[in-house]
Specification:
55% helix; single chain
Length: 80
């Protein structure tokens, strides 16, 4: 579910679907800049209602991003 939503967001940003894999790095492999990572964060917030910060110095894989989103969803669910 999370990977599918992330894939939709990346395709909307113009990333070719064949480049979108769990092991792809946001900056190194997908060549995303800071503006595009903010767009991804906003897209994830719209879809799942959670805040995830992707603007750190550490390059993240798409699997890392999905895990962050799922952890944020779980944290939000237990807080309510």
């Amino acid at each position: 579910m999370t990977m599918d939503a992330l894939k939709d967001i990346l395709v909307d940003l113009g990333i070719p679907e064949h480049e979108i894999t769990e092991t792809a790095l946001l900056r190194k492999d997908l060549q995303l800049d800071s503006t595009e990572t903010v767009d991804i964060s906003l897209g994830l917030k719209r879809r799942f209602g959670v805040n995830v910060k992707l603007e750190s110095r550490k390059d993240m894989t798409l699997k890392d991003v999905c895990e962050m989103v799922e952890q944020a969803i779980a944290t939000t669910a237990t807080a309510t």
